[in-house]
């Protein structure tokens, strides 16, 4: 009959074999494919190793860090790296093997070397920077200019972040009473969704970029963990190629992120971002006031110069007028003399011409007058010969009807009253 073991007995044998075979702790390089904190404060990790060329998984394992170790490992790791453990991160773990009869095999984490992760993060960051420089976009944001009156601010932040409220309060409460318009484009600012969420917010701003002067990406809160989302190539490319200046204030206290490097201006905190914008507009306000004062002073100076010039002109006017009057008087006298001489000359010429014409016209007039006189005499004789009085004296008479002479009897009708005029007297008759 075959020897039989219970599952518990078999697992106990495996546990004893592992404890004798792998009694020590080992440093192991791996990539985290999943990290989660469970009930009771323990941390559970899924480890993976990928083939370098094909990125195909070639090894997987489960690891756990018990609460008593995790409460000291976690703060030290986050303090050094500025990030929380998250999927995709490469880590160097100190582990020992453990096989539990009930839960099976797992690697128990005794320690995590943050310097290894820092080195891997730095390597990835340098790869991103090199790619951006090769694409020629690393300095594009630096070539932009912040508008002189930069008052319309598009803000990428979590709507509930304390930093967003601090930013708005800092803008609204500035000492100069400068006015700003802000618009929130909400995004996830920590965890694995940072990259896609911020890119989506930037896309929304880009759709209405003419309504904004600049973009501020801020992250509130005092913790500096969960910032790996700001060290990605896709987000860096979006920011580098954005048409508006981008100011970052995402709370890095140690090394700057790639996003900080390629942005138009980096500051540490949201309030520092607000202070930067207030200072920029304040500088513009001061420049405007200085320009205004300069213009006023220049106008005053110009007015003074012109007043002095007018005063000098006013004083010189009598003298100038006297000189002009004298010159013009002399000029007019010369003109009058010339005019008088020309008039006298013209009058003399006209008199000479009149004398010549008079000498030539007089004989003609005399002949004309004699001829007209003779013609008048002839007309007078003819008129006298036609005088009705002479005809009447010769025995002729004139018959009148209604004051008009009657030349034919056919012109008369029965009953007409006619008057016959003789040399001496008249006769009134009635035609029958």
Automatic annotation (TrEMBL):
Signal peptide: none
Pfam families: Exonuc_VII_L, tRNA_anti_2
Domain called Exonuclease VII large subunit C-terminal: residue spans: 137-429
Record's catalysed reaction(s): Exonucleolytic cleavage in either 5'- to 3'- or 3'- to 5'-direction to yield nucleoside 5'-phosphates
Keywords: Cytoplasm, Exonuclease, Hydrolase, Nuclease
InterPro entries documented for this protein: Exonuc_VII_L (IPR003753), Exonuc_VII_lsu_C (IPR020579), OB-fold_nuc-bd_dom (IPR025824)
CDD domains: ExoVII_LU_OBF (cd04489)
EC number: 3.1.11.6
MF annotations from Gene Ontology: exodeoxyribonuclease VII activity; nucleic acid binding
Subcellular localization, as worded in the UniProt entry: Cytoplasm
Segments forming domain OB-fold nucleic acid binding: 5-113
GO terms (BP aspect): DNA catabolic process
Enzyme class at the top of the EC tree: hydrolase
Major place of residence: cytoplasm
Family: Belongs to the XseA family.
Protein name, UniProt field: Exodeoxyribonuclease 7 large subunit
Organism: Segatella copri
Upper taxonomic lineage: Bacteria, Pseudomonadati, Bacteroidota, Bacteroidia, Bacteroidales
């Amino acid at each position: 009959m075959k020897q039989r073991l219970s599952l518990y007995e078999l697992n106990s044998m495996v546990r004893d074999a592992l404890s004798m075979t792998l009694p020590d702790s080992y440093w192991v390089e791996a990539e985290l494919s999943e990290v989660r904190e469970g009930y009771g404060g323990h941390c559970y990790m899924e480890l993976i190793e990928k083939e370098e060329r094909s990125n195909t998984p070639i090894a997987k394992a489960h690891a756990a860090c018990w609460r008593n170790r995790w409460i000291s490992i976690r703060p030290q790791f986050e303090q050094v790296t500025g990030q929380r453990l998250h999927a995709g991160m490469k880590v160097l773990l100190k582990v020992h093997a453990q096989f539990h009869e009930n839960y099976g095999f797992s690697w128990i984490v005794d320690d995590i070397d943050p310097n290894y992760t820092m080195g891997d993060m730095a390597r990835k960051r340098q790869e991103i920077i090199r790619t951006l420089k090769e694409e020629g976009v690393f300095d594009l944001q630096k070539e932009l200019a912040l508008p002189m009156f930069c008052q319309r601010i598009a803000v990428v932040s979590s709507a509930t972040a304390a930093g967003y409220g601090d930013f708005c309060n800092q803008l609204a409460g500035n000492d100069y009473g400068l006015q700003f318009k802000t618009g929130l484009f909400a995004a996830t600012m920590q965890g694995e969704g940072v990259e896609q969420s911020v890119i989506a917010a930037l896309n929304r701003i880009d759709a209405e970029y003419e309504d904004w002067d600049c973009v501020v990406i801020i992250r509130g809160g005092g913790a500096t963990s969960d910032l790996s989302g700001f060290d990605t190539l896709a987000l860096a490319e979006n920011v580098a190629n954005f048409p508006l200046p981008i100011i970052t204030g995402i709370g890095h206290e140690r090394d700057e992120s790639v996003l900080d490097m390629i942005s138009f201006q980096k500051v540490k905190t949201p309030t520092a971002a607000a202070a930067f914008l207030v200072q920029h507009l304040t500088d513009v306000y001061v420049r405007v006031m200085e320009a205004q004062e300069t213009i006023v002073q220049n106008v005053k100076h110009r007015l003074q110069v012109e007043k002095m010039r007018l005063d000098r002109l006013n004083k010189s006017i009598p003298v100038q007028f006297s000189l002009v009057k004298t010159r013009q008087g002399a000029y007019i006298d010369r003109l009058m003399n010339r005019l008088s001489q020309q008039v006298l000359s013209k009058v003399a010429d006209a008199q000479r011409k009149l004398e010549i014409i008079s000498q030539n016209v007089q004989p003609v007039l005399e002949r004309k007058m004699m001829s007209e006189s003779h013609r008048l005499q002839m007309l007078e004789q003819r008129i006298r010969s036609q005088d009705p009085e002479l005809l009447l004296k010769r025995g002729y008479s004139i018959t009148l009807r209604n004051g008009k002479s009657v030349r034919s009897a056919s012109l008369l009708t029965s009953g007409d009253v006619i008057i016959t005029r003789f040399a001496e007297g008249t006769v009134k008759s009635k035609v029958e």
